[in-house]
Write a structure and sequence with these properties.
By secondary structure, this protein is of the alpha+beta class. Helices cover 50% and strands 17% of the residues. Helix 5 crosses helix 17.
Length: 658
């Protein structure tokens, strides 16, 4: 009984102790005024600073302490910014709004338009479909008639008529017609997006229920197979072409040769050796028939179909193509790349193939969401006053039209004047002669900007990542304003202050070894050697420079380079090797050609005068004053908020799995 009571008491104490233990994320690392910095906040800030939680885990306690000190100063400054009511500063709010609009639209398009489409493209490309189609290409003026015919053919197929028979009777794709409309295996990114969408919505053996329209015409689409896509294979082949030694086509002789090679392969002879001995493909013969890696549809259909059906190490039967007879061996299959590895290529493919399609759908959804409406009366009013008038801010009737409402969205009206102010950015329409088509498209383009900005304005409430981005920018703006008020505006870099600082720190301002010189330059070594021979024969260096040097802009300067540090360039280094003014070097190779240099002056190290050092003094003075004033400001914050830091708790940082 006693032991039972002891156990119950122990369990009770354990429960009490565990319930009183502070959660890891809620551990307080610092207090300042009525605010705290918790472990969760610190870890997130530190991880963001170093590139992630994994990178942060191995950092030393000293680094964590140093960052906590800096972060505490940062947080006290932000608290001071709120005390100063920066949240309601009109100029700062205007800057934040401008940033939100500009960055918000880019963020919106990248995250909600591009990123999902690129990810979908990646997932689609895990599969490949074998597809057949019937194509109808409308003649000009016959579009309606062609569509009626295509709809009738599709209806017949739905009722049971053979797809292949309809291909034979109706398709205008002469390339795929002999194969029953087969266009072979395809994967995402290879076809017009409307055609691709139809394929990926159709199961094998099924016909897509609607006509598909592309720039090539109208299509009836049938999927005949679907299988996991192999990204790349590596294969070797032995080719015997149809041309015999006499230069004549002879398929019988070619077939006999390839059959004999096949027999030897089946008997166990080495594929690569036979390829090197007999293959008639000059590009792969010396490599044992190796073709390297290739994707689906890189080779002719018969070759491709066989190669992609083989397992690694498997050798095919004889395959005939228009190039001759082949025996194929697959040597490797490459696994699909990760999304990160493929991201850039996928983006490029998406931009080329379907960006405009996805973008238009995205904008159309915004038009619906924000109840976008065009005022047709105003549109017609503009057109009636735009005979032979360009679409720009100089429209002759703009003063009359500017206050009329042109379109509306989200309960907001955009006037003609506002439209004309924005259309200057639309290069496809700006300054074009106004007609209904141009005006309609320009209104759509301008309204798109307004709709995207409207959507971006709401991102902070719905997107945590964007809210964090805006918070970082807002904090940055506030800190910049504080530094401006407390540090930069207080620095008085007048001449007397700078001269006093110069006297206090003049050991920092010293000229190093310097040299000045003149140069003769030529792009040709034969000429530079000729000039050198003239100098040795007594020719005047300065006269030779002004007459002969080929360095752009240097003849009129006598080829002279001003006094500067000997490490400034290789030319200065060469000049410094000379002993006395008037000495000249032998020819030496220099960037772009060849040079001879003559020493004009050597200047040993010496202190700089105030005027010579003024720019350096000003820079160092401002840097020093900035540090001093910033530290004074931080000390004033410490007096006000009395921060307390619990460094010992930092030993627990990043010790809990995320």
């Amino acid at each position: 009984m006693v032991s039972r009571i002891v156990v119950l008491i122990s369990i009770g104490l354990l429960f009490v102790l565990s319930s009183c233990t502070t959660k890891h994320s809620e551990i307080v690392l610092a207090e300042y005024g009525d605010k705290t910095i918790t472990m969760d906040e610190f870890e997130k800030a530190y991880a963001k600073n170093v590139g992630g939680f994994e990178e942060a885990k191995d950092d030393s306690l000293m680094k964590l302490k140093s960052f906590l000190d800096l972060y505490l100063n940062f947080k006290m400054k932000l608290k001071d910014a709120h005390v100063r009511n920066y949240n309601n500063d009109s100029s700062l709010l205007a800057e934040l709004l401008d940033y939100k609009q500009k960055v918000g639209v880019s963020y919106l398009l990248e995250k909600y338009l591009v990123a999902p489409a690129v990810e979908e493209l990646y997932n689609r490309r895990k599969w490949e479909y074998r597809v057949s189609h019937i194509m109808f290409r409308p003649a000009p003026g016959k579009e309606a008639e062609t569509k009626t015919l295509a709809e009738a053919v599709l209806d017949s197929i739905k009722k049971g008529t053979s797809f292949e028979a309809m291909v034979e009777n109706h398709t205008q794709d002469l390339y795929s017609k002999p194969a029953g409309g087969d266009i072979y295996y395809v994967t995402a990114g290879l076809l017009p997006i409307d055609f691709e969408n139809a394929v990926y919505k159709t199961e094998p053996g099924q016909v897509y229920p609607d006509l598909v329209e592309t720039r090539y015409g109208l299509h009836i689409v049938k999927v005949t197979n679907k299988q996991p896509r192999i990204s790349h294979i590596r294969a070797s082949h032995i080719l015997i072409d149809f041309i015999n030694d006499a230069g004549e086509a002879d398929t019988v002789e070619a077939k006999a040769k390839i059959d004999s090679i096949e027999t030897r392969l089946k008997a166990g002879e080495d594929f690569a050796k036979l390829a090197m001995e007999y293959s008639e493909d000059p590009g792969s013969k010396d490599k044992g028939g190796d073709l390297g890696y290739f994707e689906r549809r890189s080779m002719v259909k018969e070759f491709d179909e066989t190669a992609f059906s083989l397992e690694v190490g498997q050798v095919s039967d004889v395959v005939g193509t228009r190039f001759g007879f082949h025996i194929i061996k697959v040597t490797e299959k490459k696994p699909g790349s990760t999304f990160e590895e493929e991201r850039d290529n996928l983006k490029e493919t998406f931009q080329k193939q379907s960006y405009s399609f996805v973008h238009d759908n995205f904008i159309n959804n915004l038009r619906t969401k924000y109840n976008y409406q065009v005022n047709d009366s105003t549109l017609n009013n503009i057109l009636s006053k735009s005979d032979s008038v360009k679409l720009d801010e100089n429209h002759p009737a703009l003063e009359e039209l500017k206050d009329l409402n042109l379109f509306s969205y989200a309960g907001k009206n955009i006037t003609v004047g506002e439209f004309f102010g924005k259309v200057t950015d639309k290069k496809n329409y700006y300054a074009k002669l106004i007609n209904k088509s141009i005006l309609d498209e320009a209104v759509k383009a301008v309204s798109e900007d307004y709709l995207l900005e409207e959507e971006a304005m709401g991102l902070e409430k719905t997107d945590v990542e964007f809210a964090s981005l805006m918070e970082d920018y807002r904090n940055g703006v506030f800190i910049f304003k504080l530094q401006e008020d407390e540090v930069w505006n207080k620095i008085k870099a007048d001449s007397s202050s700078l001269y006093k600082y110069y006297l206090e720190t003049n050991d920092n301002y010293v000229w190093s070894d310097r040299v000045s010189f003149a140069e003769i330059f030529s792009a040709k070594d034969s000429l530079i050697n000729y000039y050198y021979s003239l100098l040795q024969s007594g020719a005047d260096f300065d006269s030779l420079v002004t007459a002969r040097t080929e360095r752009a802009g240097m003849r009129e300067k006598g080829g002279k380079y001003l006094l500067d540090g000997v490490s400034t360039s290789p030319l200065y280094e060469e000049a410094n090797k000379l002993e006395n003014p008037g000495d000249y070097s032998g020819p030496f190779q220099n960037k772009g050609g060849y040079s001879i240099v003559k020493l004009i002056e050597k200047d040993a190290p010496k202190p700089k005068t105030f005027e010579e050092a003024r720019a350096e003094v000003a820079g160092m003075y401002q840097e020093n004053e900035s540090k001093r004033l910033d530290q004074e400001y931080i000390e004033s914050l410490k007096k006000r908020y009395k921060p307390v830091v619990f460094y010992s708790e930092l030993e627990k940082a990043f010790k809990e799995e995320k």
